[in-house]
Amino acid sequence: MIVIVDERELVTEGYHSLFDREGVASAGFAPGEFGEWVESAPEDDLKSVSAFLIGDCREGSVSPRQIRGRTGAPVIALSEQNSLENTLRLFESGVDDVVRKPVHIREILARIAAISRRAQDEAAYTEIGAMRIFMDGRDPEIDGEPLPLPRRERRILEYLAANRGRRVTKTQVFNAIYGIFDEEVEENVVESHISKLRKKLREKLGHDPIDSKRFLGYRLVA
Question: Which residues carry this modification: 4-aspartylphosphate (predicted)?
């Protein structure tokens, strides 16, 4: 999930719509409510955030260092000013990147992926057995052959791969894929997506690579 912070509701709603078209969950905040949420949000909610986008906010109303104190997710400033002084000021405030608007939503996603790779010192993909799972929106490969997946199933597989080695709950998967504020979708939809994903992976691999335990959650196994 991507969190957008901007004083203008029209802007946060616009980005929410654009990310939704790419199959990426997002949530928008005004600067005042955002600070309170960052301080009080449960750790599992913050783990579902893949990046923070900071737009037009009164100076000092949003602190990248406050965000960094609770999560390692990238913080990207969206700037409407084309000046060196403003760019340097934003970097000094603690953001990971500064992007000049207007910018295509896919460029933002690519920058988030690049920052995350550098931070984690990881490749652009994860290999688990015969699977190669990309983290930039591409379909996974099995034995070198692409496996086309609907965007929700692909993002679930990416999330499981990003958390390889540990089990994630249904709630964590839901929060990462749909966002923690989506009240229009039932959490049980995760079970349906994972059931379809497992069937496709089983057909290609000859075994089920998603280990599940009731009440404990899911994890990928080789």
Answer: 56
